[in-house]
Write a structure and sequence with these properties.
68% helix; ABC transporter involved in vitamin B12 uptake, BtuC; mainly alpha
Length: 357
Amino acid sequence: MTTLSPDVPLPPAPPPAAAGAARPRWGTVLAKLGPLIGLAFVVALFSALRYDTFFTVGNFELILRQTAVVGIAALGMTVIIIAGGIDLSVGSGIALVCVSVALLMPHELTDPATGATVLKGGLPLPLAALGGIVVGMLVGVVNGALITKLKLAPFIITLGMMSLLRGAAQGLADNTMVYPVTAGFLGRLLMPVSRDQLWLLTPGVWLMLVLAALVSGILRYTRFGRYAFAIGSNEQTARLCGVPVERTKLLIYVFAAALFGIAGVLQFSFLRMGDPTTAVGMELDIIAAVVIGGASLSGGQGTVLGSLVGALIMTVVANGCAKMELDNWVQLIVTGVIIVLAVALDRLRHRKSAAGE
């Protein structure tokens, strides 16, 4: 047994910073709670300004119904942004799905020769809705294939697809509205239910919550989710670690497009017709919701809960502006300011992370 000589110095004690390193920083806590704080702020603001019309159960039900479409689409955008991508074509894709569902269902056409009204189409309602989701997934296949094969930036590919899909929706609808004969069943997905029922929320909102739980579980517990975070954090490192980057990117865009397709079906159920001009600019609301929720446009960061809270913030702001009877141009300015602030906060978070703060 050896003993230490009095002349041999003892090992240095751990620095005091090591003991406090495990304690969370206020910046990290605020970054996680920021979306919830922002939601509470806008709700309190509009409640103070228009309490009688804004702070009502009926209005909150309306806000939730209006959030369902953007919220479900934001789930898909969350996965894409986590992987370091972007999709500017989602609004046009929702319009294409909306028109596709209406065309697959029985709808009325006017015979140009006789002037008589004839029925065309005729798939059962579940198959028509499923067909619309398949159309959305095909859009994801095209986006993912172009991005992975041509090695071009997702911004460029999806910017071109945004115009292409909008034109396709207008062409399929013959530059008019498509009115299906039996749209009532799908329309009830977003319509309010009576208070004596056990739904508490509309089926569309429950669908959003179920899909949110599914996407959250996929991101947290599956290899696919870990690959998405790895690619968004550092694509080259992920490739060296054996992650199939191209195949995973393709699957990400297809998976997200399936959620966009579901959002398109919900949009159709809200409109009860195929409108090729619907969802114009919705891609900005969706991207802003994800960024407000804490996702980074640089990739590698994002949460499902944050994206849903961000979608709620966008809807609350639009609803509050409407309750205050502000002109549409004022609402557009407010939305633009929110988007700019969201991107600025994302840049600030990214710089602090790069600086090691």
